[in-house]
Amino acid sequence: MDITSPLADVDPTAVVLSWLAAHPAVAKALGGPGRVSGIAEAPWPHLRVAPGPGGDMRSLEWAVEPEVTLEVYGDPAGWPGPAALRRIALVSALAVKELTEAPAVAGQPVVSSVRPSGALIEAPLADGQPRHVFGLLVAVHPPASTP
Q: Which tens digits make up the pLDDT trace of 13-43?
């Protein structure tokens, strides 16, 4: 029995990361392009997009709703402050929500819903580096088969 499925190849984190890295409102909120990636790195502020701990894999069929986490890091010296990091997180979350209205691209997963998985949390690192964390449930399904 072949258990492979197009669902296994759907990576909502990669979809969200690619979208946010190219989004002009996110670049503006962060102070310039090149500040979105999958790791916490300078220049600050920086947006890290990572797989979240939650979500709903439903019955492992056509659509799933895994969690994607947005982490906004400030400079280790404490800049920018909590209000600015909160704003960046919300601008980024609203940009992800735009994926539900984006035209489908052949061969790419389709995002049909984006909603918060909980609260936007101020969660500084142990060394004091400022960070805000926001989880999003991203309903995604494989692309339609292409001939």
A: 999 999 999 999 999 999 999 999 999 999 9
Q: How far is Cα 134 from Cα 20, in angstroms, rounded to an integer?
A: 14
Residue 18 backbone class (left: φ over 0; alpha: ψ -120 to 50; beta: rest): alpha
pTM: 0.90
Distance CA 119, CA 69 (A): 12
DSSP calls for 2-48: ----GGGG--HHHHHHHHHHT-HHHHHHHTSSS-EESS--SSSSEEE
Contacts of 72 (CB under 8 A, 6+ apart): 45, 46, 47, 48, 85, 88, 89, 92, 131, 132, 133, 134
What letter would DSSP give residue 102? Answer: S
The model's pLDDT over 38-90, given as tens digits with 9 standing for 90+, comes to: 999 999 999 999 999 988 877 777 678 899 999 999 999 988 999 999 999 99
Question: What is the distance between the alpha carbons of residues 102 and 144, in angstroms, rounded to a whole number?
Answer: 16
